[in-house]
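The protein record now logged underneath.
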Amino acid sequence: MCNREYTLKRSNRKTVALYVRDGALEVRAPMRMPKADIDLFIASKEKWIADKLGKSIEQMARRESFTLNYGDKVILRGKEYPIAAKDGGRIGFDEECFYMPPGLTPEQIKHACVRIYRLTAKRRLTERTLFFAGRMSAQPSAIRISGAKTRWGSCSAKKSINYSWRLIMADDDVIDYVVVHELAHLTEMNHSKRFWAIVEGILPDCKRQRARLKDLQSRIGGENWE
């Protein structure tokens, strides 16, 4: 018997999967699996669920209190830089700080930072994608920057590569991993052994970069960039 509340989504999948997001448990299960069996599986994972829910609730609390002001630091390409007031009415990044006009509200400061992130992401991610595309003999049809929250990057059936602007927060090695990952999908639209062979052929330490990407996700998961 399972006493824990959860959202159940059924599909043609073969196994049960648990997801914890925003303080809630979502269960994905095969179409014909009896609910009693699903409840037994959930009960067997109680310790894992409780741990994940606790971290998720803590993350939500941090996100709700997230704010930015002059003097605070934000992360760009793996390094932290201060937010500084600068006369002139312009916003940008000058290798020392995120600069913007004085007198902005915390919400305006956040929006200014996002603009800087988007501009920097477009330039840097396009540059790295073209660099690795040459090494991998890959030809993306387009390179786009989006506001995706749950995916660092994606590759469409039309060979368009899309990156979340948030990826520019990662350091350069991690950025390169995501770039190579998406370019590999131009050849293998899956995560098969052949796919990972392509990625590892370019970046032998890709597993390490995947782990570092998860660390970044944990950090910014507690920051409200909406």
